[in-house]
Amino acid sequence: MKNSFKINIIKYNYLTKIILKINNLNNHLMNNKKDYNSKRTLFILLNKKKKIIKYLTKNNVYKK
After folding, report:
1. What's the confidence (pLDDT) of residue 35?
2. What is the residue extent of each domain of the chain?
3. Which N-terminal stretch is annotated as signal sequence (predicted)?
4. Is 50 exposed, middle or buried, given 0-12, 13-18 or 19+ CB atoms closer than 10 A?
5. Cα distances (Å, whole numbers) of residue 40 to 6, 14, 22, 44, 47
6. What gap in Å lies between CA 38 and CA 28, rounded to an integer?
7. Local structure of 1: helix, strand or coil
8. Are 32 and 38 within 8 A, CB to CB?
């Protein structure tokens, strides 16, 4: 149980880092609309975020 709890905490930390990167890229893309590499990175990060949220909801993080 403790081990799965640690894994979920790590996933949350990773998720918060991804969200911060997404916010930074959004701000960057507001000024640089033709930066296609950043757009691609943004889409990759959004998909990672979606997968992590799906994993956390599927495995019910709040189990006791």
Report:
1. 96
2. 2-58
3. none
4. exposed
5. 31, 19, 11, 6, 11
6. 8
7. coil
8. yes
pTM value surpassing 0.70: yes
The model's confidence at residue 63, banded by pLDDT at 50, 70 and 90, is: low
Structure tokens belonging to residue 16: 């918060």
Q: What is the pLDDT of residues 3-52, one digit of tens each?
A: 666 666 777 888 899 999 999 999 999 999 999 999 999 999 999 999 98
The interaxial angle of helices 2-31 and 36-58, nearest 10 deg, is 150
CB 29 within 8 A of CB 42: yes
Which amino acid, residue 48?
K
Q: What secondary structure letter does DSSP report for 64?
A: -
Q: Which amino acid is at 16?
A: T
